[in-house]
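Me: I hope this is not a bother. Any chance you could explain this protein sequence and its structure tokens? It all follows right here:
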Amino acid sequence: MTLRRLLICLVVLLFTASTIAEAAAAQRRSATRTRTQHSQTTTTGPYCTISSRCAYIVMDAASGTVLNSSDMDKRVYPASLTKLMTVYLLLEAIESGRFGMTDRVSVSSFAASMPALKIGFSVGQSITIEDLLEAVLVKSANDAAVVIAEALAGSESAFGRQMTNKARQLGMHRTTFRNASGLPDDDQVTTARDMATLAKSVIADFPRYRRYFALTSATVAGRRIEGHNHMLKRGEIDGGKTGYINRSGYNLVAWAERDGRLLIGAVFGGRTYATRDAKMLQLLRGGSSVANRQDLPQSTQVATVAAAPPVPPRKPGDGIGSIIEDAQMGTLTAIPAAASTTAAPVISTSLPPNVTEVPPQAVAYNAPTFSTSWAVQVGAYRDASQAQQALDKATRELPSILGATYPRTIPTSTNVGQLHRAQLIGLDERQAKAVCVVLSRKGMQCLPMPPTG
């Protein structure tokens, strides 16, 4: 090959490579524009376009006061919001001692045959109760919901009757359940008001299990599962459940703290998950201002918790009274949360070394508002998931006490970068200090935090 031909070939190759690269870049730019346009069109315009599906409500969790609504008593299809009642009955069985979290139940052929979304359990597989709970709340797994139904009632149809009976007891008078999963059934209907009422009951009746409703991922039967609740993943809500079938559109029940109060929203009939989420965010943002105009008290506890009777004060030397008294008198040597990301004790007192428990009756939950509540901070972490793990660990150490507090992670800018402060709020000063005494004895970081309001 002559030098001239070689040069021509090189020029052709370079031109061809340049053309291909330009075409690929143009294709990427076009795809980016398409995604951007799609994102914009899915979050603009009406959230719901089929009137028979459209309904929403936002209520104050403490009082049950409706703050905003549209067609809240219209019957609509719940889709996978049904699983909130499935979980309610499961938690009721756990609390009654009928089942434990580590108990195992077998998967029937009927449960295994459920359509997606599902985990994909095999017939005869043995699954723990906790795995089933997480599979339903994180993945909205239909097979897990049916396993629960059969374990509690023998059959899904019998479980549907139990679900409907419980709905009536909770004041959900326009709701009928036929299955545990929310798969299409003409007779399975609910309302926005009824679903918000169910969420309020879940929060009030089972505060120890609140963290499960905030999970965005879990390990079930040895496999990692990821959730699809985008609002949870973005930290816009504190808990909730999504739902979708063709007949319902995109549904969502969610709760979140706004300006010192806990709000519950239910949105039905979204034309996309993005428009549904945007509507929920709008309702939650507006709910607290409506509550302020109605002069509702700030509260992060639902009514049944906030109304708990106060515990009479105890004298020094009398059980928990001595623990609280010593905690008040002891020296609090706090390790600044911003300077440490590892669990380490932060309280030094003269308590006897055998003090390891705080009796549940010592906590009265008589400080239900953010403005008057003390909190306990159990660490500050670079990663939000580490903060959540610290909250979970503290709750496991003292479930009867910290299970009913309000968990929160607070992003904070520091001289070492952004940290996530892990706090549990809803105690008074004596309770917070007593809890920290016990957690520090167990080797956990704990710092009593006074009210910020």
Notes: The radius of gyration is 26 Å.
